[in-house]
């Protein structure tokens, strides 16, 4: 059946892709490793590793997981590092061993880390040395048996210093020692099918506890092929240089930057700390960058960094924005400086993640999340589950081969987000115009997006409400020039000695930094409906 958006596809984009073209993601990566063996795959702090290097190192690490740790297909392995050379090597090793990678934010607090490790039932973790203190705090309350510590200088060999490993983790191994041990054993190929899990990608939930989206090899194969079908003639296999500043543990960078452009034989330039904008710009200046992905705040930050506008952008062909809405003013300025508009896309952890993107062949900027990827159907529905009329608002529901298998060990939560006819309910309210372009107009779940990261009010409210001096609280998202949105918290206190700083310090101890409220206001009463629901709209007003 024809869809409104088909006429908007670029000439090279098919209506459908074959999600079973490749048996698994590993098959696609091995192909790239062989075809582009001499190409630079990753650069970190200026140190480079070729595709051949990465394949050999990852095979050794896979052998270590198999032979030294005794891991089997399907075992969950947590990976908790920033963008550093150890990440892609560890990832490829985990996948080649047939294990399931659990992506963990290295900035997590003890509460967040403990929940995720226990929920995933992970027994092995590769962790950045700077995050070992958090792990040491909770390891006794988890099932973790194997700790492998990665340092910034691992596989880089530039003499970079890393924070020391927490002394409480006395039985840990180093990442380099693990690779060396694996090199002395034989790696055994693992039979991996499309339905086998590849990632547990944790996402926030309205209960305040994150849920693991079960992503399969078929999900990721499909999304790889979908993105490649969309980018079409704008891809240059074996020639791309991609700046990767979005965290690799985030599904956007993991799929697009890492998997897609590895499959295409590109070079990934890893930015470990994108907040250091001057160093970021200096690193960019060393490369003929052809692809950049980022969130609106990252684009805006670069545009306001001295020296960025003076760089050579003659090679830049693709700029993709996701995680939050791309502002027209930012895209207009980006085009003025670089010659290219930003192509906004949309997706979720549960969808591997790409669902929509604006056509790469169009020169203009459209205030839209774009059109659906091939083999993707989007249906806008009302509260009763009925499809809404053209132009009306409805919840964005999607069906396609990139949609997750379900939430890990949460059949109840899975059932809540799936319609009777097999569509995934995103929780976002959207409209579609007559040309098939979609716009997000509201958030059903009241989530707040801070620098591309989703923040759920209930999680913050639950932590603050636990304070003895707090009667009740509620939070909303407010516009912020730096982060897109910021968290604003309203508190009804039971003690006049409770201050803004006391509340903020409490939040810093139990929430990752981007969830900590930027604004805290004390009020006399939280507005509620007759049935006791918080009226966030009144708070916004």
Describe the structure.
The protein has a nine-stranded mixed β-sheet. An eight-stranded mixed β-sheet has the order 7-6-5-3-4-8-9-19, with helices on both faces. It is α/β, with parallel strands linked by helices and 541 residues long. The mean pLDDT is 94. Helix 2 crosses helix 3 and helix 10 crosses helix 11. The chain has a domain at 448-540: ANL, C-terminal domain (GMP Synthetase, Chain A, domain 3). The protein is built from 15 helices and 26 strands.
Gyration radius from CA atoms, angstroms:
23 Å
CATH superfamily of the domain at 448-540: ANL, C-terminal domain
Biggest sheet details: 9 strands, mixed
CATH fold type of the domain at 448-540: GMP Synthetase, Chain A, domain 3
- Helix tally equals 15
Please give the alpha-carbon distance between the first and last residues. 43 Å
Total beta-strand segments: 26
* Fraction in helix: 25-40%
The geometry reads as globular
Structural class: alpha/beta
Detail the poorly predicted runs.
none
Strand order of the largest sheet: 2-1-11-10-12-13-14-15-16
CATH architecture group name of the domain at 448-540: 2-Layer Sandwich
Under the CATH scheme, which class of the domain at 448-540? Alpha Beta
What portion of residues belong to β-strands? 15-25%
Mean pLDDT score: 94
């Amino acid at each position: 059946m024809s869809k409104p958006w088909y006429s908007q596809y670029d000439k090279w984009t098919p209506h459908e892709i074959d999600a079973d073209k490749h048996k698994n993601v590993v098959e696609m990566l091995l192909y790239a490793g062989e075809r582009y063996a001499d190409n630079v795959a990753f650069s970190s702090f200026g140190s480079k590793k070729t595709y051949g290097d990465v394949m050999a190192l990852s095979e050794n690490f896979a052998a270590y997981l198999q032979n030294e740790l005794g891991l089997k297909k399907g075992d969950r392995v947590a990976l908790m590092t920033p963008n550093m050379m150890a990440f892609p090597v560890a990832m490829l090793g985990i996948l080649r061993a047939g294990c399931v990678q659990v992506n963990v934010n290295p900035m997590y607090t003890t509460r967040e880390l403990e929940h995720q490790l226990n929920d995933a039932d992970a027994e092995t973790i590769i962790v950045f040395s700077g995050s070992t203190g958090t792990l040491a705090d909770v390891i006794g309350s988890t099932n973790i048996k194997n700790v492998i510590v990665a340092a910034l200088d691992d596989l880089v060999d530039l003499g970079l210093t890393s924070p020391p490993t927490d002394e409480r983790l006395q039985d840990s191994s180093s990442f380099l020692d693990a690779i060396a041990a694996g090199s002395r054993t034989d790696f055994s190929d693992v039979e991996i099918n499309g339905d086998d899990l590849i990632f547990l990608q944790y996402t926030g939930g309205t209960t305040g506890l994150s849920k693991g989206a079960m992503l399969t090899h078929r999900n990721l194969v499909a999304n790889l092929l979908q993105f490649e079908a969309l980018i079409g003639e704008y891809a240059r296999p074996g020639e791309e240089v991609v700046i990767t500043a979005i965290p690799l543990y985030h599904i956007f960078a993991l799929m697009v930057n890492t998997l897609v452009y590895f499959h295409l034989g590109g070079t990934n330039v890893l930015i470990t700390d994108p907040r250091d904008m001057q160093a970021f710009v200096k690193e960019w200046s060393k490369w003929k960058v052809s692809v950049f992905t980022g969130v609106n705040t990252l684009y805006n930050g670069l545009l306001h960094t001295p020296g960025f506008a003076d760089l050579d952008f003659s090679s830049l062909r693709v700029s993709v924005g996701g995680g939050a809405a791309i502002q027209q003013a930012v895209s207009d300025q980006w085009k003025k400086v670089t010659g290219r508009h930003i192509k906004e896309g949309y997706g979720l952890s549960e969808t591997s993640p790409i669902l929509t993107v604006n056509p790469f062949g169009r020169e203009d900027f459209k205030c839209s999340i774009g059109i659906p990827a091939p083999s993707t159907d989007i249906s806008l529905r009302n509260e009763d589950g009925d499809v809404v009329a053209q132009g009306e608002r409805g919840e964005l529901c999607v069906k396609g081969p990139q949609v997750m298998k379900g939430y890990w060990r949460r059949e109840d939560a899975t059932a809540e987000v799936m319609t009777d006819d097999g569509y995934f309910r995103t929780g976002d309210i959207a409209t579609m115009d007559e040309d098939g372009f979609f716009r997000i107009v509201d958030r059903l779940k009241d989530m707040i997006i801070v620098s591309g990261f989703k923040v759920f009010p209930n999680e913050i409210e639950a932590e603050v409400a636990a304070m003895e001096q707090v009667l009740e609280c509620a939070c909303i998202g407010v516009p912020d020039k730096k982060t897109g949105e910021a968290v604003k918290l309203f508190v009804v206190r039971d003690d006049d000695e409770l201050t803004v700083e006391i509340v903020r310090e409490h939040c810093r101890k139990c929430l990752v930094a981007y969830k900590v409220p930027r604004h805290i206001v004390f009020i006399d009463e939280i507005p509620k409906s007759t049935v006791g629901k918080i009226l966030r709209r009144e708070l916004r007003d």
